[in-house]
């Protein structure tokens, strides 16, 4: 495939021959979410990330002969809660199956999963799709199945000595597999779905969603077809390690398929891996090997019954779905709608706030305790100034050491005209670098108070007028916009501390044009 | 004959309590017997140090008048597919030849907790796949009732728990643990002339029992009397949090009534006609007829019933067995444990070679066939089909035990266990493994299909001087009635499990 | 005493063991018997002529999935006859009969509390592995198809 390498040198793939509107892309996601529980799905060993090699391994996890699985109730509850939050029908009876294949990190030679009769089916997710530069819109994807299953161990490949080193700490960790219908079309839609899913799972506390720890893994099934044709042959893309990669990988693969077809090639049903470093998908195997998993019911686990009766309570062996549904917290979409209704926010603003749970917390708590400041000011500052700062530094909001109290103090000072917006922005940086010092102290320390004294301002204005004769001239000729140059000069002279409102008033008074 | 061998467990522990016999002495004698009877090849491994230590501890407890219970100081043998901590557990296969489990099977730990003395691990067919205990890494086990133990005219002990049956039949120990998937406890019990109980599926824990067919395996109990069998059952039965296929109901100890207290007038015996199949020997038929008659004389109602799907059982069993084997054996790749070959070029090569070297022909064929049945295209036609027929077989039993009409119900089914007395090894070895199992397991398999309890009791000797046994079956969790009736029959026939030792009266 | 014991066992028994007089006469019955005195024939189709589709490709697939080799013609024959054996139940009427996966299908599946009760036994977990390296299990590289 040498010609494709040459093509890759240009960052934008050329699609000269196909008018894009004739082709549709189809994307279906498979998400594996590691359930947040203290012990594994079928054994009593621990689940902490980063435990010493092969130490979170019970005999069952290592497939020692004679050992048997025993189901962890917390995992069943987490699966049910997640299913309910995603609008699924929880099945009264579900069963476990063995899925057979050989691999070094699969000691049993099979994985225990749920294939025939899963915990839940027929869910649905409706979520906002945010594409930079485009208007926000809502997309719906059906959730076909939610099943409980075991994770496999980890094998490290030692190419030098031609061997694999196997650590079974991860073997047997509880997973929920969420199989979505191929209802999506673009990488952005997929990324948005996953973002929404993460918000939901974190609120439910059923999954940490830390993709860097492997707690959330996303595989994408991608195909293209011409409008009106049935779905094309699909490829599966694995090894997507972050939310950002989701959009990149899927977009890349769609384009790769379109190009392949444009050049007269065919898409083969294969598994491809996302190479984040080189930003492309790579075929994982050169020969697609025929696979038959020979699913068989897990004989050591009789069927799992759950109680669907409304108003029921959970007992030791019978989990009540009704009792769990009461525990479901407010879901992100409901929060967005509530924010829009309660605070008259624009939908886009609500989306941004809900997307960043800490930001949302700040917003709500500041609004409550600082009723004199208009809501608009609060969220504008949080989004335009605070969030922007974090993004600039590539910092996650939760990793920023600035808390709600600090922001509240900034806003209080801002509203009280003690400081201006520039100073407020400076304070963010100062606070982040000096987490132990309070806002008031910093204002004093760095002399951030606004200059509001009329005399001082007049003096500054006079100075600025002197420094900007050309602008003055233009302004007096009638070009009102020229005032900003002079205002800017005042700002510079005052080290950004002059109260801009007063400055503008003052300048206007001083520079009253002689004739109308 | 050693006098104490004539005792049952209750009498034995009574003599311990009175100081007449010491557990230590008994264990020493047992180990001696085991050595002397090495030709039987009942044991694959004796554990004399551990046994003597346990016996010593038991003795101390009796001296302090604080014995642990009914099994304190009683000698027991364990089939080598039960995990015993620190003691190699091989399933008589090269694949697990060096496997030393890091834990005890629940059955073993309960026996240990009760103070029983574990003498060692007994021989079996490789991975419990067989009906003769002839397919073992350690060679075949011989039946102590054989006319001759040398040469080629010895009799098989039955299987796959032949070693355990043999050890009890020879008087080396008082009881033994086996496993029963299609008859693997009742079959050798029948040939060796001892009691063999397959309890209700789920009554005993399978944690630590290396599985053959998970949905049918049950730990089995060998003893020389029903009373001894019950003593062991009471010690090991009951739910286990490590095994999700144990019945959750708490277990209540069985107490069987005294013989003269047993009233059979309320008992309804069923004779399922399909159990008279081709190949049933005239002597077994005669035995069956006589015992049915005895029961009727004692006031029980005896009638013929029909279990129409009985003959389908062996076919269903072969499918389900092979499918589970294909799955259960997938773990043997040499990485975490077990035989590891030398071809390290790829996992595929290593696994394939380890498995080729570690498994015998029988195991390999079952794995292949099982995988064939589990292929997606074959799954419905074979595996699911077999499971549907399994329900028909189970429903046959349910219909007679819980029939809608009170008059149509029976409590106990009386059938043969094996179709003949113990075959000669040379005749048995000439058959394929499948035919060996198919013929001998005809009467025993259906109970495993349905999960119901079944017990084999020796009745009399055949013309060849070999034991003939019969089987009783009952509905799930009905061991109380099942063993009561068994006990009554036992008392009528007065079969002496140690009769083969009579010749040695002067020497022992 | 022990030597005598051995000798007895290794001798052919010229005379049978003294048979205890049977108190029960197995040939005498009091009631008309309920035990069928003739075998009940079970009718199963003869499937030995059944065509079993096992082309080399299927066999290769099976060998790869099972990682067990069919190393002889005899093994292939055994496989075929096992399949024919299984075919014998095809004719049994099972419409509307649900598969019996486990006899415990009515019981609630046992659920365990979410507590860490196992693990932390690396030494024991690794104890039976023939090859380990610094607390890892060791395996050859994977996903390389078998040589044909």
Features:
heterotrimer; A: 516 residues; alpha+beta; Arc Repressor Mutant, subunit A; 3 domains; nine-stranded mixed sheet; three-stranded mixed sheet; elongated; disordered N terminus; C: 148 residues; mainly alpha; two-stranded antiparallel ribbon; 4 helices; mitochondrion (chain C); ATP-binding (chain C); GatC (chain C); nucleotide-binding (chain C)
The helix/strand class of chain C is mainly alpha
User: Low-confidence parts of chain A, pLDDT < 50 over ≥5 residues?
Assistant: 1-12
Q: Tell me the total number of β-strands of chain A.
A: 18
The profile of the biggest β sheet of chain C is: 2 strands, antiparallel
Beta content of chain A: 15-25%
Q: What strand order characterises the main sheet of chain C?
A: 2-3
What global shape of chain A is seen?
elongated
* Alpha carbon gyration radius of chain A: 29 Å
Strand percent estimate of chain C: 5-15%
Largest interface: B-C, 111 and 90 residues
Strand order of the largest sheet of chain A: 3-7-8-11-1-12-13-14-15
Instruction: Return the average pLDDT of chain C rounded to an integer.
Output: 81
Rounded to the nearest angstrom, the distance between the terminal CA atoms of chain C is 62 Å
Give your account of this protein's structure.
Chain B: Belongs to the amidase family. GatA subfamily. Chain B: One of its GO terms (biological process) is mitochondrial translation. Chain B: Allows the formation of correctly charged Gln-tRNA(Gln) through the transamidation of misacylated Glu-tRNA(Gln) in the mitochondria. The reaction takes place in the presence of glutamine and ATP through an activated gamma-phospho-Glu-tRNA(Gln). The complex is a heterotrimer of chains A (516), B (508) and C (148). With 516 residues, chain A is α+β, with helices and mostly antiparallel strands. In chain A, 37% of the residues lie in helices and 20% in strands. Chain A contains 16 helices and 18 strands. In chain A, helix 10 (404-415) packs antiparallel against helix 11 and helix 13 (454-467) crosses helix 16. The longest helix of chain A has 20 residues, at 243-262. Residues 1-12 of chain A have low confidence and may be disordered. Chain B has a single domain (3-265, 411-507), classed as Amidase signature (AS) enzymes, CATH 3.90.1300. Chain B has helices spanning 9-18, 23-36, 48-63, 106-113, 162-169, 186-192, 226-236, 282-297, 313-328, 347-358, 361-374, 376-401, 425-428, 433-440, 445-450, 479-493, and strands at residues 43-46, 75-79, 117-122, 175-180, 195-198, 218-223, 268-272, 301-305, 412-416, 454-461, 467-474. The radius of gyration of chain B is 22 Å and the shape is globular. The chains are: A alpha+beta (516), B alpha/beta (508), C mainly alpha (148). Chains in contact: A-B, A-C, B-C. At the B-C interface, helix 8, strand 8, helix 9, helix 10 and helix 11 of B face helix 1, helix 2, helix 3 and strand 3 of C. Strand 2 (71-72) of chain A pairs parallel with strand 1 of chain C, so a sheet runs across the interface.
């Amino acid at each position: 495939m040498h010609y494709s390498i040459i093509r890759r040198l240009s960052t934008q793939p050329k699609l000269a021959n196909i008018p894009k509107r004739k082709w549709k892309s189809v994307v279906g996601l498979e998400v594996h979410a590691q359930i947040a529980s203290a012990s594994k799905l079928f054994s009593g060993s621990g689940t902490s990330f980063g435990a010493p090699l092969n130490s979170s391994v019970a005999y069952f996890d290592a497939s020692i002969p004679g050992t048997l699985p025993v189901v962890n109730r917390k995992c069943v509850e987490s699966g049910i809660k997640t299913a309910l939050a995603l609008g699924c029908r929880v099945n009264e009876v579900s069963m476990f199956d063995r899925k057979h294949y050989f691999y070094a990190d699969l000691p049993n030679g099979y994985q225990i999963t749920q294939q025939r009769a899963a915990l839940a089916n027929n869910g649905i997710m409706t979520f906002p799709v945010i594409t930079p530069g485009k208007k926000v819109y809502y997309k719906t994807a059906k959730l076909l199945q939610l099943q409980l299953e075991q994770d496999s161990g980890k094998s490290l490949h030692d190419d030098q000595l031609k061997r694999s080193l196997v650590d079974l700490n991860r073997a047997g960790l509880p997973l929920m597999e969420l199989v979505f219908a191929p209802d999506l079309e673009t990488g952005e839609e997929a990324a948005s779905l996953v973002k929404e899913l993460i918000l939901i799972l974190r609120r439910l506390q059923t999954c940490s969603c830390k993709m860097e720890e492997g707690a959330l893994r996303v595989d994408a099934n991608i195909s293209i077809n011409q409008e009106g044709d049935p779905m094309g042959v699909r490829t599966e893309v694995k090894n997507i390690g972050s939310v950002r990669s989701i959009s990149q990988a899927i977009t890349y693969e769609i384009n790769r398929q379109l190009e392949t077809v444009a050049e007269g090639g065919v898409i083969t049903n294969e598994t491809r891996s996302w190479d984040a470093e080189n930003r492309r998908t790579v075929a994982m195997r050169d020969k697609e090997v025929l696979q038959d998993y020979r699913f068989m019911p897990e004989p050591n686990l009789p069927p799992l019954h759950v109680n669907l009766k409304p108003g029921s309570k959970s007992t030791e062996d019978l989990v009540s779905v009704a009792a769990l549904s009461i525990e479901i917290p407010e879901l992100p979409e409901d929060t967005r709608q509530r924010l829009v209704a309660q605070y008259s926010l624009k939908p886009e603003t609500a989306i941004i706030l809900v997307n960043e749970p800490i930001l949302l917390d700040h917003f709500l708590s500041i609004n409550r305790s600082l009723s004199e400041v208009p809501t608009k000011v609060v969220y504008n500052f949080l989004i335009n100034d605070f969030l922007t700062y974090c993004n600039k530094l590539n910092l996650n909001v939760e990793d920023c050491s600035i808390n709600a109290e600090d922001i509240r103090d900034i806003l209080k000072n801002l509203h009280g005209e003690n400081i201006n917006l520039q100073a407020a922005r400076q304070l963010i940086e100062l606070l982040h670098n000096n987490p132990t010092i309070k806002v008031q102290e910093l204002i004093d320390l760095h002399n951030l108070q606004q200059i509001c004294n009329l005399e001082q301002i007049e003096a500054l204005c006079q100075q600025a007028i002197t420094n900007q004769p050309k602008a003055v001239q233009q302004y007096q000729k009638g070009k009102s916009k020229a005032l900003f140059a002079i205002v800017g000069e005042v700002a510079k002279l005052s080290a950004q501390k002059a109260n801009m409102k007063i400055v503008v008033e003052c300048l206007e008074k001083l520079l009253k044009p002689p004739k109308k | 004959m050693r006098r104490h061998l004539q005792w049952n467990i209750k009498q034995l522990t009574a003599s311990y309590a009175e100081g007449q016999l010491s557990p230590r002495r008994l264990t020493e004698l047992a180990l001696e017997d085991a050595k002397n009877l090495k030709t039987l090849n009942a044991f694959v491994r004796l554990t004399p140090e551990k046994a003597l230590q346990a016996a010593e501890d038991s003795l101390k407890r009796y001296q302090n008048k604080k014995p642990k219970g009914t099994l304190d100081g009683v000698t027991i043998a364990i089939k080598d597919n039960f995990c015993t901590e620190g003691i190699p557990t091989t399933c008589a296969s090269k694949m697990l030849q060096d496997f030393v489990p890091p834990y005890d099977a629940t059955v073993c730990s309960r026996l240990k907790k009760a103070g029983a003395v574990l003498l060692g691990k007994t021989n079996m067919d490789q991975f419990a796949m067989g009906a003769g205990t002839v397919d073992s890494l350690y060679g075949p086990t011989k039946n102590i009732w054989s006319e001759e133990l040398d040469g080629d005219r010895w009799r098989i002990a039955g299987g796959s728990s032949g070693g355990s049956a043999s050890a009890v039949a020879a008087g080396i120990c008082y009881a033994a643990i086996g496993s029963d998937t299609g008859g693997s406890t009742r079959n050798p019990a029948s040939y060796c002339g001892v009691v063999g109980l397959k309890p209700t599926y789920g009554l005993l824990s399978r944690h630590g029992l290396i599985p053959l067919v998970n949905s049918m395996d049950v730990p089995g109990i060998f003893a020389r009397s029903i009373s001894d069998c019950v003593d062991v059952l009471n010690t090991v039965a009951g739910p286990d949090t490590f095994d999700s296929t144990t019945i959750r109901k708490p277990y209540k100890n069985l107490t069987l009534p005294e013989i003269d207290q047993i009233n059979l007038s309320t008992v309804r015996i069923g004779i399922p006609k399909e159990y008279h199949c081709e190949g049933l020997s005239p002597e077994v038929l005669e035995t069956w007829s006589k015992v049915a008659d005895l029961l009727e004389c004692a006031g029980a109602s005896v009638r013929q019933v029909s279990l129409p799907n009985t003959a389908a059982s062996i076919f269903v069993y072969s499918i389900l067995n092979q499918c589970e084997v294909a799955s259960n054996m997938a773990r043997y790749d040499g990485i975490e444990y077990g035989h590891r070959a030398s071809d390290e070029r790829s996992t595929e090569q290593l696994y394939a070679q380890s498995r080729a070297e570690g498994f015998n022909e029988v195991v390999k064929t079952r794995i292949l066939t099982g995988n064939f049945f589990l292929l997606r295209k074959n799954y419905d036609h074979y595996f699911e089909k077999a499971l549907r027929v399994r329900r028909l077989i189970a429903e046959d039993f349910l219909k007679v035990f819980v029939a809608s009409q009170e008059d149509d119900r029976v409590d106990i089914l009386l059938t043969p266990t094996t179709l003949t007395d113990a075959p000669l090894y040379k005749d048995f070895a000439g058959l394929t493994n499948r035919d060996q199992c198919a013929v001998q397991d005809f009467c025993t398999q259906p109970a495993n299909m349905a999960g119901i309890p079944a017990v084999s009791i020796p009745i009399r000797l055949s013309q060849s001087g070999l034991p003939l046994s019969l089987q009783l079956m009952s509905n799930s969790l009905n061991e109380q009635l099942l063993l009561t009736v068994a006990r009554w029959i036992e008392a009528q026939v007065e079969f002496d499990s140690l009769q083969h030792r009579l010749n040695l009266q002067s020497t022992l | 005493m022990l030597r005598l014991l051995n000798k007895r066992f290794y001798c052919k028994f010229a005379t049978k063991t003294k048979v205890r007089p049977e108190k029960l006469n197995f040939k005498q019955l009091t009631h008309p018997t309920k035990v069928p005195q003739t075998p009940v024939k079970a009718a199963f189709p003869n499937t030995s002529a059944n065509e079993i589709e096992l082309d080399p490709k299927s066999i290769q697939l099976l060998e790869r999935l099972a990682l067990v080799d069919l190393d002889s013609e005899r093994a292939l024959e055994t496989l075929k006859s096992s399949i024919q054996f299984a075919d014998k139940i095809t004719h049994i009427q099972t419409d509307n009969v649900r598969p019996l996966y486990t006899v415990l299908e009515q019981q609630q599946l046992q659920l365990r509390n979410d507590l860490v009760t196992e693990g932390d036994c690396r030494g024991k977990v690794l104890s039976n592995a023939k090859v380990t390296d610094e607390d890892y299990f060791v395996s050859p590289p994977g996903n390389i198809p078998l040589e044909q």
